[in-house]
Automatic annotation (TrEMBL):
Chain ranges passing through the membrane: none
Keyword tags: Phosphopantetheine, Phosphoprotein
A matching Pfam family: PP-binding
Domain Carrier: 2-78
Protein name: Phosphopantetheine-binding protein
Region annotated Disordered, chain positions: 83-102
């Protein structure tokens, strides 16, 4: 299974002509030559690639890992809104019955 980080790295490699060995979670975007306008462009591509909508509020994304975590959060919100079941672990309390079944 491809992770969000892997998919993000593929976008960065394709759109910014970066080498895979440059792309680590802690790598600052600025060190890759991606400034604030570049981040905005990256996020538009992320919207299309991941099928998510970005919130209007600004968010500080300094590293590749920050962007991947931001995407994961938006994917979780999207999946919750669509009624998707939890991906792993125990069901959340809201979906569990309050009393045992007879």
């Amino acid at each position: 299974m491809t992770t969000t980080f892997d998919r993000l790295c593929a976008i960065l490699a394709r759109d910014y002509k970066l080498q895979a060995d440059q792309l680590m979670p802690g790598t600052p975007l600025e060190s890759l030559g991606i400034d604030s306008l570049g981040i905005a462009d990256l996020l538009f591509n992320v919207e299309d690639e991941f099928g998510i909508s970005l919130p209007p509020e600004p968010v500080q994304l300094l590293t590749i890992g920050d962007v991947a975590r931001f995407i994961d959060g938006l994917l979780a919100i999207r999946d919750d809104a669509n009624g998707a079941p939890p991906k792993a672990g125990l069901p959340d309390a809201a979906s569990s019955p309050a009393t045992p079944l007879p």
